[in-house]
């Protein structure tokens, strides 16, 4: 396994995303990738990042989320977007090509990967910043609940995830802020239902099913 530079399209615009162990090698940019990946891994990304599941790009839920977002609004230009548990920041990077100002967040071990992808996006005109956000810790003071959209993909990894994620949603989703989450159906019967049970006292929630993926929308009551 190695670091690869994926070449993707959102709304007809190209964006690049470094990730580990591509799930679909057909969409990666092969030219010069071996040399580039070796340099990134040795110089910028700690070995601990390869142990983080978020460094791997899981395309099914991510692409379903982007199709959903595209159908929901003609443009996200001018929107302030937060991606939770971003891993490599795939969804946030796509929205940045659409004109959104994006903050991609995850645990400290993945910050070098997020910063690398944010830097690549900025080189191509994107407005992307990276930050550490550990759901089990206090929210850093510089991350305030002033986002238009909070988004995430495949975030329900274990039994603790629903409660931790619900706490983040409760903090960041205020007023008219939208929360959108795509979840592979393998998690639908457990993690997603648990999350909805925690959110519904304060949030209006709805779920849409597409092949292989559940899409959760939530907004403050």
Automatic annotation (TrEMBL):
> What InterPro entries does the record point to?
Methyltransf_16, SAM-dependent_MTases_sf
Q: Which domain of life is it from?
A: Eukaryota
Upper classification of the source organism reads: Eukaryota, Viridiplantae, Chlorophyta, core chlorophytes, Chlorodendrophyceae
To which species is this protein native?
A: Tetraselmis chuii
Q: Which PANTHER family match?
A: HEPATOCELLULAR CARCINOMA-ASSOCIATED ANTIGEN (PTHR14614), RIBOSOMAL LYSINE N-METHYLTRANSFERASE 5 (PTHR14614:SF109)
Identification of the protein by name: Calmodulin-lysine N-methyltransferase
């Amino acid at each position: 396994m190695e670091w690869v530079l994926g070449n993707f399209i959102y709304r007809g615009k190209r964006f690049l995303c470094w990730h580990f162990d591509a799930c679909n090698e057909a969409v990666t940019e092969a030219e010069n990738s071996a040399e580039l990946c070796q340099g990134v891994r040795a110089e910028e990304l700690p070995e601990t990042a390869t142990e983080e599941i978020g460094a791997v790009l899981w395309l099914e839920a991510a692409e379903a989320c982007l199709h959903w977002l595209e159908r929901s609004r003609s443009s996200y230009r001018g929107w302030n977007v937060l991606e939770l548990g971003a891993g490599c920041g795939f969804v946030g990077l796509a929205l940045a090509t659409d004109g959104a100002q994006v903050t991609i967040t995850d645990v400290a071990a993945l910050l070098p990967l997020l910063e690398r992808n944010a830097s690549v996006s900025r080189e191509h005109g994107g407005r992307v910043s990276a930050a550490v956000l550990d759901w089990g810790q206090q929210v850093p003071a510089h991350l305030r609940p002033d986002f238009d959209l909070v988004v995430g993909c495949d975030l329900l990894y274990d039994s603790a995830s629903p409660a931790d994620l619900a706490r983040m949603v409760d903090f960041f989703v205020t007023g008219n802020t939208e929360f959108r989450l795509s979840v592979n159906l393998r998690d639908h019967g457990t993690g997603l239902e648990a999350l909805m049970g925690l959110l519904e006292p304060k949030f209006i929630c709805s779920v849409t099913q597409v092949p292989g993926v559940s899409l959760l929308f939530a907004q403050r009551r």
